Each structure stands twice: as structure tokens, then as C-alpha cells.
Amino acid sequence: MANILVFDSGMGGLSVYREIRRLLPGHHYFYCFDNAHFPYGELAEEALITACANTVEQMVSEHAINLVVIACNTASTIALPELRARLEIPVVGVVPAIKPAVALTQNGCIGLLATPGTVSRDYTLRLIEQFAPGKQVLLKGSTELVVQAERKLAGELVDMDVLRAVMASWREEGHSPDTVVLGCTHFPLLADELAEILPGVTFVDSGEAVAKRVRHLLGSGGSAGEGRGMAYCTRLDAAALKLQAPLMSWGLEQLRQVGD
């Protein structure tokens, strides 16, 4: 039975945690979110690397972690080399699911919906060049949707007008992708709302692929039974405390601050 750390700047990584725990329910899970530096999509690269690496390293040391999942596309495109240099255990990142989207599209037009940081990275552009030659790939970076996903998890209403405004250009005739890559782990949490705004569109995310990668690295153990789940944050303030009930509904027993 392994100790698995799933790390994100906020609640978006729960979409990845859900897929891993569904496939491997017998392991122990530590979900850690860096709310002190949220959202990562607006951080300078060096600040992001420092924040991410320091917190992950502390969690690994304090909880005998066997494998780390960086459940944040922005952090994965920037901080993975530093993390892998510091740690002696496997570190799994998430990348936009461009390759699966290419296999699914019927009209040759794919939308990549991610944070501003992810859509502007050279890494993302190289993925598109490698896996989507000859396809039209529309890029859209949005921090507003990250905020709406956090609101939804906190039990607040999603502002559908905000979603419609963000997605307006993809609803126009002649500019409509039939397949949309959810390139931020927050965005699968808004899948129902996005499907209402973009009816008939196929949405693709990386959660299932990450779960299969974790299973490959850890072996066949953990596929049966029921392990424990714990939640940690970097700042246990009033806003974080409001998330305790939602986190418990995801099988995470309590919320603590990193270092406590």
C-alpha cells in the first residue's frame, strides 16, 4: 500500500485524484493545495517553481510519500524538472490531452482550454506541433474559469454568464471546435456547465491517462480495498476552512496545514 501525494494550487487536482483513486482505491492519498500562492497561472515561473517544489518536498518528507502527482497543467509544464531533481521517487505530471483529441475530432478543429500560462508555453506549442499536424487548434486561456470551478466546489453557484463570455468565440459559426481539451485540471469540474454552453462538443482531459500511469509505476497493488485520504493546504484560513465539507465528500477525512 503506497502513500500518494496529489498536488495542485487549488481544487482542480481533485479531478485527477478522483480518477487515480477510482482505479487504485487501496492506497493512501494526500491531497495538498497551495492556496497561499493560488492561482499558479498568474505566477512568474521562478516563483511558481519555488512555491511548488518547497511544498511538495516538505509533504514528501513528512508523510513518507512514495509517488507524487502534480495535478496542475501549469506547474507540470514548468516545475517537473526541478521536482524530479530534488526527489528520489516518481513524479507524474499532467499535460494537455492533444493526442487523444486528434483521434476524436471529426471536423479537424480542436479547442485547447487552459490557463493563460499553459497556452503560452513553448511546451504546449510543441505538443500541438507533434500531435496535431494539419489540424486547426484554437487556444483559449482563462483564469476566470479556474475561479468558477473553485466557487462550485465551495458550494457556490457557477456564474454561467462568465462561462458564456469566455466561450463566446467558440460558439460562433465557422469557429467551433467539435473537440475541446480541458487543459487545466480545474476545468473537468465544470464539465456539465461547459457541455450546456457547447452542446455536442466532446471534452477530453488527462485524468484517466494519469491514473493509468500511476498504476504502471506502482504495480498491481492498491486495486482493491479502501485506503485513507487526507487533505492539506498551505494556508489554513477562513476560506480554506469552508472547503472542509466538500473535501470530505471526496473521501478526504480532514484538512490540515502543511507542517502541522
Automatic annotation (TrEMBL):
PROSITE patterns: ASP_GLU_RACEMASE_1, ASP_GLU_RACEMASE_2. Keywords: Cell shape, Cell wall biogenesis/degradation, Isomerase, Peptidoglycan synthesis. GO terms for biological process: cell wall organization; peptidoglycan biosynthetic process; regulation of cell shape. Pathway: Cell wall biogenesis; peptidoglycan biosynthesis. The keyword Cell wall biogenesis/degradation applies. PANTHER family: GLUTAMATE RACEMASE. Provides the (R)-glutamate required for cell wall biosynthesis. This is Glutamate racemase.
